[in-house]
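> call design_seq(struct)
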């Protein structure tokens, strides 16, 4: 019985004599892995080291020759190869190589990130994620295999000495945990990111809606709608270059790619354009919005904020977004909650919060801008449904006077498709409605006429309370959108409902009778109120001086009060005559 022990790279054998050691060396496929030990030796030795101790002759000439002729692999000099083969001591493999390679990996990842940061090239993004995860996969395999082999070698050495290899078992247990963690990371993050990068580069990024760009309001406005995906900023810049009159950008988007949002922001800022949101501007869209010289939000519209994410990674570097928001003058107290909101959520601040943080410069009714969003793309049938659902007046008009209704429908449909400003379009439609109502009013029922007179009193009084000169313009038949805004919503709703009654009750009426006695009562009542015949002449005057604007409105209100205070039949007769 010999006293030699041999470790062949996977298991420990012995005791055996020196000649059996020689036989095993000759049969082994890779003798460099073999280590031997016996009492008196300090640690396990390579074959060369053992021969130096016992002398070459101890194996016998023939056996030594055969051992020398066996395939030999040179001792690894390359650090990568030595670790891979498990030739480093376990402490070196586990701690030094592991920590050093992780630091190196961090540097490489940083360099790859710099390669693609701010990139607008989908192919570069794809290459980044493939290189990133391929490198991490190779590193993990190299680390795990090398450390595992080193632990196996240490277990053999410890076993040969009759000692337990607690550290080696612990290291292998940690490697198993590391493998499990790596698999989870690759399933949850690597595979989704590579898949998403592939879809961006080669499948036109199907998760993000398609975008569209169109000019509005005779080329003074431009609308971006849909998803913010790669290619948008390039197309947007081309259209701007061909349209020097653009001054405002409509934004209607759920968001999309941060890199493209950053570039849109830079283009808008460099050209000094205003930004306007009629419905929604979410996520990456807000980067473009805050670049506006004037940032206008339609009342009721929403801006939405959250932090960026990319297929399994909800913690992307947000330095670029912070920089854009700060450059726009937005307060830090707003930026922080905007960028800590989970990507799966959306923070939609109130109008007051947006104004206070200087995200929005003003809230608007939107009248100064063209119809955008879905409304700007409605077909004639779409607008027909909108009008029918919006007010009974349009339902009555379509039923009783379809030709006039079609004319109004054409105004709205053609105007929105051409991108005419909302105020101008509304004014055109209102003028058509006013025209038909003016013709039908004298033919309406008595009760409708009296209700009309009372509505006039309330509307004139409401406008006069805000602006006497505006009341004159409204009462004298010169309304515009700014004047319409002075009418309270409840009175505007009464007008629409009354218009429906006018349309439905209008019919052929007998020729108006003389109302001289009624007019005498009216004049008497006006005289008691302090108004003269000269004041009444103001209402018929073609030119009224600015000094008489307030008086004009006072007389008009007083006149309608006197008329509507008459008995119903008499009041209706006077109004029918007066409005004919």
């Amino acid at each position: 019985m010999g006293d030699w022990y041999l470790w062949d790279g996977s298991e420990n054998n012995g005791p055996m004599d020196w000649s059996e050691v020689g036989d095993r060396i000759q049969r082994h496929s890779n003798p460099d892995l073999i280590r031997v030990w016996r009492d008196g030796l300090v640690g396990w030795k390579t074959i060369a080291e053992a021969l130096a101790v016992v002398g070459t002759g101890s194996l016998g000439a023939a056996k030594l020759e055969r051992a020398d002729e066996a395939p030999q692999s040179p001792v690894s000099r390359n650090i990568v190869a030595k670790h891979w083969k498990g030739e480093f001591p376990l402490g070196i493999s586990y701690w030094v190589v592991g920590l050093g390679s992780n630091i190196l990996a961090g540097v490489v990842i940083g360099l790859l990130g710099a390669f693609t940061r701010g990139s607008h090239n989908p192919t570069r993004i794809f290459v980044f994620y493939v290189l990133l995860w391929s490198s991490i996969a190779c590193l993990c395999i190299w680390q795990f295999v090398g450390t595992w082999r080193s632990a196996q070698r240490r277990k053999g050495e410890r076993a040969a000495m009759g000692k337990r290899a607690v550290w080696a078992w612990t290291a292998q247990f940690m490697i198993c945990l590391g493998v499990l963690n790596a698999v989870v990371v690759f399933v949850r993050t690597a595979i989704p990111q590579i898949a998403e990068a592939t879809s961006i580069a080669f499948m036109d990024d199907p998760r993000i809606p398609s975008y569209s760009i169109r000019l509005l309001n005779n080329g003074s406005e431009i609308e971006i709608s849909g998803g913010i995906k790669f290619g948008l900023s390039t197309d947007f810049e081309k259209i701007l270059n061909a349209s020097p009159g653009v001054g405002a950008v409509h934004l209607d988007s759920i968001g999309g790619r941060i890199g493209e949002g950053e570039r849109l922001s830079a283009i808008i800022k460099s050209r000094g354009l205003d930004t306007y949101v009629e419905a929604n501007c979410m996520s990456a869209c807000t980067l473009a919005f805050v670049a506006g010289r004037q940032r206008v939000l339609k009342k009721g519209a929403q801006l939405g904020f959250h932090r960026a994410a990319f297929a399994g990674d909800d913690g992307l570097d947000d330095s670029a977004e912070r920089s854009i928001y700060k450059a726009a003058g937005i307060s830090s107290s707003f930026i922080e909650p905007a960028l800590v909101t989970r990507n799966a959520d959306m923070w939609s601040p109130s109008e007051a919060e947006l104004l206070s943080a200087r995200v929005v410069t003003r809230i608007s009714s939107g009248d100064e801008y063209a119809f955008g969003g879905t409304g700007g793309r409605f077909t004639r049938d779409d607008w027909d449904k909108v009008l029918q659902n919006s007010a009974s007046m349009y339902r009555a008009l379509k039923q009783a006077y379809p030709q006039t209704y079609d004319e109004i429908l054409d105004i709205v449909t053609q105007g929105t498709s051409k991108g005419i400003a909302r105020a101008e379009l509304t004014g055109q439609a209102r003028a058509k409605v006013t025209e038909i109502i003016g013709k039908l009013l004298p033919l309406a029922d008595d009760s409708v006429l009296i209700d009309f007179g009372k509505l006039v009193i309330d509307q004139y009084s409401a406008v006069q309370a805000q602006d006497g000169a505006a009341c004159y313009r409204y009462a004298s038949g010169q309304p515009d959108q700014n004047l319409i805004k002075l009418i309270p919503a409840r009175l505007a709703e009464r007008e629409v409902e009354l218009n429906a009654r006018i349309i439905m009750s209008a019919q052929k009426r007998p020729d108006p009778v003389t109302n001289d006695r009624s007019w005498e009562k009216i004049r008497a009542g006006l005289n008691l109120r302090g108004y003269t015949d000269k004041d009444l002449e103001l209402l018929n005057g073609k030119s009224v001086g600015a000094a008489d604007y307030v008086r004009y409105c006072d007389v008009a209100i007083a006149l309608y009060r006197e008329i509507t205070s008459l008995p119903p039949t008499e009041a209706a007769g006077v109004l029918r005559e007066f409005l004919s």
